[in-house]
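User: tokens in, sequence out, please.
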């Protein structure tokens, strides 16, 4: 058995910055409400006419990750792509990455686990590497939310939160099993599927139903019972981080860097306080990008690394919670 190690990181966000004041021109909202409830100051939204999509942003982030990893494209054995906003209903974005990057005809899978998608993707890649089946895996998280949001006052409870962007990493075989990904922990609770959902288009609610609907059909906009999700998030985040620490015989103060999914700054601050972590032990960038769902953990991990906040030997914890409900953590010895 081997371990897997992250050897290259990259991110890409669209140039177009949308501030809270910009949103208040589209709907009844304001900078004070958004900052106080979420911590978000601005987000990136793909501009009309841009070539960017989830797959294309994912490819741009991947180019950087591959370059920084020092491996060649020919050395990539497999692709794992996490997104809830794929370019097509099918096929998934993974195969587009294979084509866009000109990779060998390696396997590609998409992970549909929303906010915890990247943590799930890391776990999937880790299993393939552990068993020796693959040596180098490209793991991508990307979201193009802005084209699917209700940009009227009706949608303000959800729309102000989400941003577009992508991150990617190369996970590679590590012979020393005391290094790299030490463990991953994945959970789900499907009874709450409809608490955070985009209902259609789906095979149950497809074009005929949408066209027949007499009233305006809102089922293709995201719906979230925000307060309900918030309450579950703080509990599940804490549980799944503790689960990871206990599995590895670690204490709270063994955490050198926690990278929480960027859903709401208040959630991250609650976890920080609960675990008694200092400001230098938790990385947040939701202020700049909003919630980029499957891209949020990898964008934050990349920025933390770029800013020199992660050093060799550090205990890095990734944790996420979201739609499904699904949640998970990964404990990494950097
Ligand atoms: O990433 C996946 C997981 N997602 C999460 O973990 C998100 C969890 N939930 C949250 O982050 C928070 O629940 C939200 C940020 C979504 C909402 O914050 P909240 O403190 O729970 O606010 P609320 O939904 O209870 O709304 C409070 C008030 C309402 O008005 P009334 O009924 O009190 O008059 C809303 O209509 O704020 C109003 N409101 C807004 N006002 C201005 C909702 N959205 C907005 C807005 N601007 N954008």
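Assistant: Sequence out:
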């Amino acid at each position: 058995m081997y371990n897997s190690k992250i050897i290259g990181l990259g991110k890409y966000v669209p140039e177009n910055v949308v501030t809270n004041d910009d949103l208040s021109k589209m709907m009844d909202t304001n900078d004070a409400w958004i900052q106080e409830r979420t911590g978000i100051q601005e987000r990136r939204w793909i501009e009309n006419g841009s070539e960017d999509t989830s797959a294309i942003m994912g490819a741009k982030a991947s180019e950087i990750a591959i370059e920084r990893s020092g491996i060649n494209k020919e050395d990539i054995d497999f692709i794992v792509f996490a997104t809830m906003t794929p370019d097509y209903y099918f096929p998934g974005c993974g195969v587009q990455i294979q084509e866009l990057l000109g990779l060998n005809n390696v396997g590609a899978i998409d992970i549909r686990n929303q906010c915890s998608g990247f943590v799930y993707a890391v776990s999937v890649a880790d299993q393939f590497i552990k068993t020796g089946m693959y040596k180098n895996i490209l793991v991508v998280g990307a979201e193009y939310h802005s084209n699917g949001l209700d940009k009227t006052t009706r949608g303000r409870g959800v729309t102000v939160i989400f941003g577009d962007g992508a991150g990617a990493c190369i996970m590679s075989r590590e012979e020393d099993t005391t290094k790299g990904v030490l463990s991953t922990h994945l959970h789900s609770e499907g009874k709450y599927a409809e608490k955070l959902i985009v209902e259609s288009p789906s095979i149950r609610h497809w074009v005929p139903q949408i066209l027949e609907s007499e009233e305006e059909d809102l089922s293709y906009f995201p719906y979230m019972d925000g307060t309900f999700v918030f309450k579950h998030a703080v509990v599940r985040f804490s549980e799944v981080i503790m689960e990871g620490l206990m599995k590895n015989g670690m204490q709270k103060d063994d955490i050198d860097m926690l990278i929480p999914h960027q859903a709401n700054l208040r959630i991250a601050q609650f976890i920080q306080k609960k675990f008694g972590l200092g400001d230098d032990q938790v990385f947040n960038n939701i202020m700049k990008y909003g919630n980029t769902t499957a891209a949020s953990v990898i964008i934050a991990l990349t920025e933390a690394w770029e800013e020199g906040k992660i050093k060799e030997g550090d205990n890095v914890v990734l944790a996420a919670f979201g739609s499904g409900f699904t949640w998970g953590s990964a404990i990494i010895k950097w």
